[in-house]
Amino acid sequence: xxxxxxxxxxxxxxxxxxxxxxxxxxxxxxxxxxxxxxxxxxxxxxxxxxxxxxxxxxxxxxxxxxxxxxxxxxxxxxxxxxxxxxxxxxxxxxxxxxxxxxxxxxxxxxxxxxxxxxxxxxxxxxxxxxxxxxxxxxxxxxxxxxxxxxxxxxxxxxxxxxxxxxxxxxxxxxxxxxxxxxxxxxxxxxxxxxxxxxxxxxxxxxxxxxxxxxxxxxxxxxxxxxxxxxxxxxxxxxxxxxxxxxxxxxxxxxxxxxxxxxxxxxxxxxxxxxxxxxxxxxxxxxxxxxxxxxxxxxxxxxxxxxxxxxxxxxxxxxxxxxxxxxxxxxxxxxxxxxxxxx
Length: 342
Ligand code: DAH
Description:
Structural class: alpha+beta
CATH superfamily of the largest domain: Bira Bifunctional Protein, Domain 2
Low-confidence stretches: 96-103
Number of strands: 7
Number of domains: 2
Radius of gyration: 35 Å
CATH class of the largest domain: Alpha Beta
Bound molecules: 3,4-dihydroxyphenylalanine
Number of helices: 13
Strand content: 15-25%
Strand order of the largest sheet: 1-2-3-7-6-5-4
């Protein structure tokens, strides 16, 4: 029996080197643990050997308990000396070999926000006010005030998310048109309405469930499609830093009449065809049109006296075109290497 103890001692030494305190406890001291079982066997030991056996077993147990205690206190000491910065990016605290990252984590604005600043700057120089859209809105601003009465089939074009309390995550920044007309009226009204939008999308390289739009509205007496064409073209040429040809194609939106799809010549290939324009030479960039009289009325303006135009363009899409990004989902991945390389 004493030889059995010697064998166990040898395995125990190996285990002490390899197992954690918890694992040792489980293997040797738990209800079915190796040492516990040996204690139960004491009664079967020959009387002449029982004393020595008992002493050896007790000694083993004491040594093991001490070792376990030591292992556990080592872990606690280690834990308490690792300093955690709760405000740091998630990968900084997690493992030691990632810590050198700290040195080059300087912090910077996201490319989407940088580009938004550039665009807002262009419009501010053109005399536009700025009002950011909301990230939770209601049926009136999402649909009703934009000439989508209840049951209107065009509501289906905007499959988005609703809360149980009947609030909506806006599917476009046009939700702000009514507020802008009321807040900045009487005309002239020139406002840019940037903001985050959400759609219940099957995502792919050019569709995301969360994205930014930049809405613009311009209302005054005797405003025409010609003013719309010139304003949007000027803005895009300044932003993309190149001359553009433009086309206007028919589209449908309940809140404009007429409704237009604004198309630009591809700034990369000069209409020859490339991967950015899907080899067509042209890029359909945004919806726009003359503001529907019902939308002006809902905003407290007389459509006999005033007219205006509005547009809504996807910021992510525009930035992807400008910076040559082939998948807009990358803009929201949070991949720091991708963002740094931009
Ligand atoms: N809100 C539209 C969309 O997201 C885009 C749009 C079209 C905005 C025409 C406008 C507009 O202001 O006049 O699909």
